[in-house]
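User: Sequence recovery, please. Input:
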């Protein structure tokens, strides 16, 4: 039966005017990342990017999210860092295969749209895209009443990069004796937050505002540290032929991610104590009495990227990293897989 009072889209919980405000923020952030290869403005039905300068191009893509790290953003009202996390995570995932990022698209879904929050996220996305030489060329902002709790949202991203086929980084040349160099993480990056929140908030009873001297900051400061991009050191080593493989240490830790690049029959030996485990990980280990295997598969433990360097090229690789002022730790080596053993052996 028809109602006497007109019902608008806004009455159902969708505010098109607020969406327009959000898009205006996104346009500002995106235009700072545009290059001559971007052929359409934000707002077109499809994003357009002109690929040039490659002889046998291989496109490499990845899609990812920020996980429950966004719960910390909800708690604190700080939304600018999760956009950086998302871009940098995606950049790292394609960088380990040799790709330079070309363009990035985001998906932002919320129950009730707040243009200022969307603007903070867009600012983070734009900043990270600029730093990685990647164009933010489009995405989707979806307001869906009833699917999300008030003040909550979901955030995901999609990246496309390119590399010459002859320069693909596959790990196929990795051999016994190659050295593993670990590049430091800033903290949890974007993995292990479900356990971290349980330990720090539920078990220990901390709040985001709790200051801990051992962390030299608040819990929020620690948990919202930006996921690092390792694009520059990877590209530097690739250009001079010093890199045999690279593994982004995300969910699964060193234990599950390093084997993804190893040829059949090879394993890695990780030397415990060869790098400083960040205080936040040791804190959580004490709080939860976390078993070793779970500890190593949940968190990166202070290593965000592993580079595999041929032994004879190690000195040159170390000099190249030092020229970038990129810290590193020699954390292990490649070995033949011992019979009956796993592919990551901790010593």
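Assistant: Recovered sequence (347 residues):
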């Amino acid at each position: 039966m028809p109602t006497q009072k007109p019902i608008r889209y806004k009455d159902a919980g969708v505010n098109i005017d607020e969406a327009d405000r959000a898009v205006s923020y996104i346009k500002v952030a995106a235009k700072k990342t545009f290059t001559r290869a971007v052929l359409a403005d934000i707002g077109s039905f499809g994003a357009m990017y002109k690929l040039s300068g490659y002889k046998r191009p291989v496109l490499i893509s990845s899609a990812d999210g920020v996980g429950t790290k966004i719960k910390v953003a909800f708690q604190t009202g700080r939304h600018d860092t999760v956009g950086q996390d998302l871009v940098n995570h995606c950049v790292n995932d394609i960088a380990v295969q040799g790709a330079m990022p070309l363009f990035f698209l985001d998906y932002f879904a919320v129950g009730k749209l707040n243009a200022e929050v969307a603007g903070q996220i867009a600012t983070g996305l734009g900043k990270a895209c600029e730093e990685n030489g990647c164009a933010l060329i489009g995405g989707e902002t979806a307001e869906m009443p009833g699917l999300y709790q008030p003040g909550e949202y979901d955030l995901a991203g999609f990246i496309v990069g390119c590399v010459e086929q002859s320069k693909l980084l596959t790990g196929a040349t990795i051999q016994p004796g190659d050295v593993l160099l670990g590049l430091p993480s800033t903290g949890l990056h974007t993995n292990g937050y479900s356990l971290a929140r349980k330990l720090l908030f539920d078990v220990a009873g901390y709040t985001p505002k709790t200051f801990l001297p051992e962390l030299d900051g608040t819990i929020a400061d620690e948990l919202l540290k930006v996921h690092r991009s390792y694009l520059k050191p990877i590209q530097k080593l690739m250009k001079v032929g010093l890199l045999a493989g690279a593994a982004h240490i995300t969910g699964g830790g060193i234990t599950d991610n390093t084997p993804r690049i190893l040829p059949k029959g090879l394993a890695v030996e990780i030397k415990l104590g060869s790098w400083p485990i960040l205080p936040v990980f040791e804190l959580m280990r004490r709080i939860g009495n976390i078993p070793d295997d779970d500890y190593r598969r949940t968190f990166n433990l202070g290593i965000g990227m592993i580079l595999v360097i041929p032994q004879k090229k190690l000195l040159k690789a170390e000099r190249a990293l030092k020229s970038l002022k990129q810290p590193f730790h020699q954390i292990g080596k490649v070995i033949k897989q011992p019979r009956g053993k796993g592919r990551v052996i901790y010593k």
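The mean pLDDT is 93.
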